[in-house]
Amino acid sequence: MSTVRAASTTGLALYNQAAADAAATVIARYSTSFGLACRLLGPRPRPHVRNVYALVRIADEIVDGPAEEAGLSPEIAGEILDQLEGETLSAIERGFSSNLVVHAFAGTARGCGIGPELVRPFFASMRTDLGTLRHDAASHDAYVYGSAEVVGLMCLQVFVNAGTQHPVTPPPELVDGARRLGAAFQDVNFLRDLRHDETVLGRDYLGLSTADGERAAVLDRIDSDLAIAARAIPALPADCRRAVTAAHDLFAELAVRLRACDGGEDRVRVPDAVKARLAARALLGFAPREVRA
């Protein structure tokens, strides 16, 4: 084999591409809705967002079922999560990991300015799932920051910095919008998964009683977060706006459907035809749908 051939088949560029492909496969297997929104991103940010969400998905699976099905105790799952966090932070510093998903994330983190200040809170929230079953208002807010808001901030770093030589800090209005959108996504999912979280995982993220007013208050908070996030979306780079608008509108639709039911039904979903309509609307450049806060 020639030297040129060997370099082309074993070099870092090939390894980077294999890592990106691995991250894309993880996302394709786990989330059709996310895959739809991701396809609306431009080619500049798209692979980096996939890299972020692939790592998030792997960490989530450690604490949410597959590890337990494999016979792992919470203590062992915690050790594996610690190892994943350590490998992620080390890979960001050194620029390489033998774990393909971690390697893909690290490349994105190094290029887009995602540092330990965002990575550590995420893993802290994941670790909470291994021991905390009931949340009050304070622990809910801390959990949502680490599990969802910082993921929104990671994506914002990608939106602003992918393809640039020197990452910059996004403006405050975009930072607030990213945090609000992440929080809204998480609270919507808490309401959608309320029965599963309680009966299967034994967790209560929202601390809701049987009083309808408490559930309505969560939905009011979601609407407020979605409304504030919608005002920030037009300031995003053009190749990101359509995807974020589609995601925003999908969760706004879920919030409407959650408000129309009493919480006792099966997991609330948006029909595929409605998803397609929302995606088409975003693709055509419409502003995010109005949400009454």
Protein model, in words:
This is Squalene/phytoene synthase family protein. It holds the Pfam family SQS_PSY. InterPro entries: Isoprenoid_synthase_dom_sf, Squ/phyt_synthse. With 293 residues, the protein is an all-alpha fold. The chain contains 14 helices and no strands. Helix 2 packs across helix 7, helix 3 packs antiparallel against helix 13 (238-259) and helix 6 packs across helix 7 (100-112). The protein is globular. The relative contact order is 0.10. The model is unreliable at 1-7 (pLDDT under 50).
Any descriptors?
globular, 0% strand, mainly alpha, 293 residues
Mean pLDDT: 92
Q: Describe the largest sheet.
A: none
User: Hey, roughly how much beta strand do the residues contain?
Assistant: under 5%
Question: How many angstroms does the end-to-end distance come to?
Answer: 65 Å
* Separate helix tally: 14
Low-confidence segments, ≥5 residues, pLDDT <50?
1-7
Question: Quick one: how many beta strands?
Answer: 0
- Please give the oligomerization state of what you see: single chain
Shape: globular
Organism: Microbacterium ureisolvens
Pfam families: SQS_PSY (PF00494)
InterPro entries: Isoprenoid_synthase_dom_sf, Squ/phyt_synthse
Protein name: Squalene/phytoene synthase family protein
Summarize the structure.
The protein is an all-alpha fold and about 290 residues long. Helix content is about 75%, strand content about 0%.
